[in-house]
Design goal:
The protein has 382 residues and is α/β, with parallel strands linked by helices. The protein has two domains: 181 residues, Glycogen Phosphorylase B (Rossmann fold, 3-Layer(aba) Sandwich), CATH 3.40.50; 174 residues, 3-Layer(aba) Sandwich (Rossmann fold). It has 15 helices and 13 strands. The strands form two sheets. A seven-stranded parallel sheet has the order 3-2-1-4-5-6-7, sandwiched between helices. A six-stranded parallel sheet has the order 10-9-8-11-12-13, sandwiched between helices. The two termini are 31 Å apart.
Length: 382
């Protein structure tokens, strides 16, 4: 049964990280849901194997022509609810003044450090976007576990920050099927999926391989992705005689990456605090991987309960990544338990269908002046 409200989601462009949520909202709202893309999808993303979503029926492309731009302005003004991520505030200026229900959708504010607030341009921008309407019908959907603390730091969104994130395409396989695929591995398969750029820290993967090889572990690390530094790291792997331990592959479209994840025992996520959310965490957990991830990544504190459905390491301790990985390699029972719990976390809580249901319930609660009924997961208070 369709809900009788209209919801519009504004962002720069549509990616597979957002389409499952959009499609879940379409199932619940029908024509009452629209996505507004304010920019074309960058070639860089398309070259990584991402799909071109330039012809999706529920999308308004505000950058294409004057008619669609005016429609985007209308939706921003007239929709019952608006969610706005990386998109210009021109689309919501009128509704903010009219005090209509609006959600901002944001990763952490201060990736470079909170000292940035000392820059007059930064404080002016935060005042305009996050502070001046702090007591209005404006709420924050946190696409990082570090967004809410940043909001509190600048005294914005008082008691109005909710856990959210990205809800990408996930494995739809039965866990028994995934377990069967992993059981065929003759050695421990470790997977890393990312772009070869500085903030992703591929060098940590090579350092890990060196330590594992030194301690006589039988393993294979697959590094999937493209990027300006890939050739550089391929040379380093050859120089360190690690070609039997590290394999480079990709790029692949998202559905093929999920298949690779299903065959992996361990997934390592080495990005630093500049990783806003990190959708590969949702994806790898849904594929039953035992994840070892840096605690600074935005999704990690939301999705991982250390020792239960994943392991969290600290970059401040140079041995932390290795210690957590070799713990999983030494203890198959622990690895198996974490794999199963990771799968369950995504299948039962952190997925697009649950997020859509919870958001619609949260909208009802806000309109009725009541608190969210959720204590954990999407739409719980942060």
């Amino acid at each position: 049964m369709k809900n009788n409200i209209t919801v519009t989601f504004f962002s720069n462009f549509l990616l597979h990280h957002q389409t499952p949520f959009c499609e879940a909202m379409i199932k619940r709202l029908g024509d009452g849901f629209r996505f507004v893309a304010t920019e074309p999808t960058p070639d860089e993303r398309l070259n990584m194997g991402y799909r071109d979503y330039s012809d999706v029926s529920y999308v308004v492309y505000s950058y294409k022509d004057d008619e669609q731009y005016k429609e985007a302005l209308r939706l921003g003004s007239e929709s019952d609810v608006v969610i706005i991520g990386s998109a210009p505030d021109v689309f919501i200026e009128k509704r903010l003044k009219q005090n209509k229900l609006t959600f901002r959708y944001h990763e952490r504010f201060f990736k470079e450090g909170r000292w940035r607030i000392l820059d007059p341009r930064v404080i002016t921008a935060h005042y305009k976007q996050h502070f001046r309407y702090r007591n209005k019908n404006l709420y924050m959907l946190c696409a990082s576990a570090y967004t809410a603390p940043d909001c509190r730091f600048i005294f914005s969104y008082p008691n109005k920050t909710y856990k959210w994130g990205y809800f990408p395409e996930i494995s739809l396989s039965d866990y028994n099927d995934i377990e069967s695929i992993k059981s065929k591995n003759k050695k421990v398969k470790i997977l890393w999926v990312s772009r070869f750029i500085k903030l992703k820290h591929p060098e940590e993967v090579i350092a890990l391989a060196e330590k594992l090889k030194l301690n006589n572990y039988d393993f294979l690390i697959e590094m999937v992705g493209v990027g300006e530094l890939r050739e550089h790291y391929e040379r380093i792997v050859k120089e360190k005689n690690l070609t039997d331990q590290i394999k480079f592959s990709g790029p692949f479209p998202p559905d093929e990456v999920l298949e690779i994840m299903k065959a992996a025992d361990i997934f390592i996520f080495t990005s630093d605090k500049n990783e806003g959310w990190g959708a590969v965490l949702n994806e790898s957990m849904s594929a039953g991987c035992a994840v070892v991830a840096n605690k600074e990544i935005g999704s990690v504190p939301y999705l991982i309960n250390h020792g239960e459905n994943g392991l969290i390491y600290s970059k401040k301790d140079k041995n932390s990544l290795y210690e957590n990985v070799h713990l999983l390699m030494d203890n198959k029972d622990l690895r198996t338990r974490i794999q199963k719990n990771a799968y369950s976390t995504i299948k039962t809580v952190w997925n697009a269908n649950v997020a859509a249901d919870r958001l619609l319930r949260l909208i009802e609660c806000i309109n009725n002046g009541t608190e969210t009924p959720y204590s954990t997961g999407p739409c719980s208070k942060d």
